[in-house]
Write a structure and sequence with these properties.
- By secondary structure, the protein is mainly α.
- 70% of the residues lie in helices and 0% in strands.
- Helix 4 (69-91) crosses helix 5 (99-111), helix 8 (159-177) packs antiparallel against helix 10 and helix 9 (180-189) packs across helix 10.
């Protein structure tokens, strides 16, 4: 399930003015980034027009999802350099395997990035932070849609057990302890080594999983007593 974001309840619209659901918005963003990644992998330095044509969207739609074209190029480049390895880690998790193991495999894969990919990730964060507040028209996640999808996939066996609300909360919580932002805090604020940071993220992820399970069980016990 997609993560709900706080803020004005006005839904984002595409270039034709149609209101888009969160899942539709994520699919559109993914199509734009995937098209850009494909163009880059062919050795191109694509233009906005190239990406719009490849993704079958308008130029205006691209700028609804990305403040600048440089942000899109960075996002696609980071994806081209790192997505395959994380995809493999997620796909290697048995569909019926322990969620704790599935999440740990994902966390470790997200930590195994090259110095070049880390540099690009930091640049991507800088671009999105420096862009300033979103307009009411956009109100879309600025980055991290791949991370959210990976986390949702890892948690899939628990979806029915947790329910929609707890699943959304857990996805959002895990997104805070893995990925670029967590890596930067570990390196720059806490002074941790790469291996120390990786183990910290695994520990934090386990703590969130355990807390969610305990909360779910406590709620069920309360309901049975009524």
């Amino acid at each position: 399930m997609p993560v709900k974001h706080t803020g004005p309840k006005r839904a984002a619209a595409d270039a034709s003015g149609r209101t888009l659901r969160p899942a539709q918005r994520r699919r559109t963003r993914k199509a734009i980034v995937d098209a850009t990644m494909a163009l880059i992998s062919r050795g191109m330095t694509p233009s906005v027009a190239d990406v719009a044509a490849a993704a079958d969207v308008s130029r205006r739609t691209i700028y609804l999802y990305f403040e600048t074209f440089d942000q899109l190029l960075l996002d696609a480049t980071v994806g081209a350099l790192s997505q395959a390895s994380v995809d493999r880690a997620v796909e290697a998790s048995p569909s019926g395997g322990r969620v704790e193991d599935r999440v740990e495999r994902l966390v470790r894969a997200l930590h195994h990035v090259s110095p070049e990919v880390e540099r690009l990730g930091r640049a991507l964060i800088r671009l999105t932070v420096e862009a300033g507040p979103d307009s009411a028209e956009r109100k879309l996640p600025r980055r991290g849609y791949r991370r959210v999808e990976w986390i949702e996939t890892a948690l899939a066996p628990w979806r029915d057990q947790l329910g929609d609300a707890r699943t959304r909360r857990l996805v959002a919580a895990l997104a805070m302890v893995v990925g670029w932002e967590a890596l930067i805090v570990q390196r720059d604020v806490c002074g941790l080594s790469a291996s120390e940071g990786e183990e910290l993220s695994v520990w934090a992820a386990r703590a969130l999983l355990n807390a969610t399970l305990q909360d779910t069980r406590a709620t069920r016990k309360t309901r049975r007593r009524r």
